[in-house]
Structure to design on (212 residues):
């Protein structure tokens, strides 16, 4: 049996140089996201979302990115979930993308706010019917007696709404407006490339290299 302490990997696929990197982090993130999509990686849109509760305890979970532009990163969820409650109390989060096959990690931090009702409505309407029913059926993050609760709820709301379930008032989108990006590219001998972009008070991005 292989010991965890003995696992090793040499990262040799690519490099990340500050002299050739874009001045704006959004451009580099879009390039890396497009490359992950074109490489047909398993779930390249999966990202970790980290939030902090009122008690100072951090928590993480995997969600799927559903939009990205100069305004920020968008995902959708239940506002009454643990992450929703934590964001209501402390509206900042950290995101992480890990594209293992490309030996890349992107970390993004910033303030989080809800997207408009119109945006949430439009995205909700585009979801498969089962997913729309599921948004009503699952009291996310709450204790339930068994899986039968979900099945019963799904049947109840399916009968109630048929083919046209409206967006639940407790469900919608969040947008993280970045003020910090970090790009990590694996390199040999653990001498990895790390570029940090930070947004200044003047609205300009600065870029620097971090030691691995």
């Amino acid at each position: 049996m292989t010991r965890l302490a003995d696992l090793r990997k040499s990262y040799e696929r690519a490099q990340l140089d500050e002299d050739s990197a874009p001045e704006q982090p959004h451009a580099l993130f879009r390039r890396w996201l497009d490359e992950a999509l074109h490489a047909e990686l398993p779930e390249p849109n999966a990202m970790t979302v980290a939030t902090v509760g009122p008690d100072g305890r951090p928590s993480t979970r995997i969600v799927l990115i559903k939009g990205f532009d100069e305004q920020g990163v968008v995902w959708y969820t239940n506002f009454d979930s643990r992450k929703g409650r934590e964001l209501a109390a402390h509206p900042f989060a950290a995101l992480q993308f890990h594209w293992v096959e490309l030996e890349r990690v992107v970390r993004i931090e910033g303030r989080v706010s809800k997207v408009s009702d119109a945006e949430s409505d439009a995205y909700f309407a585009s979801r498969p019917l089962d997913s729309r029913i599921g948004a009503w059926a699952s009291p996310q993050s709450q204790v339930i007696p068994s899986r039968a609760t979900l099945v019963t709820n799904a049947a109840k709301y399916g009968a109630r709404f048929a083919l046209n379930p409206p967006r639940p008032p407790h469900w919608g989108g969040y947008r993280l407006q970045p003020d910090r990006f970090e790009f990590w590219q694996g390199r040999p001998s653990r001498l990895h490339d790390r570029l940090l972009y930070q947004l200044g008070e003047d609205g300009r991005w600065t870029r620097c290299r971090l030691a691995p």
Notes: The mean pLDDT is 96. The radius of gyration is 20 Å. The chain has five helices and nine strands. The CA atoms of residues 51 and 93 lie 5 Å apart.
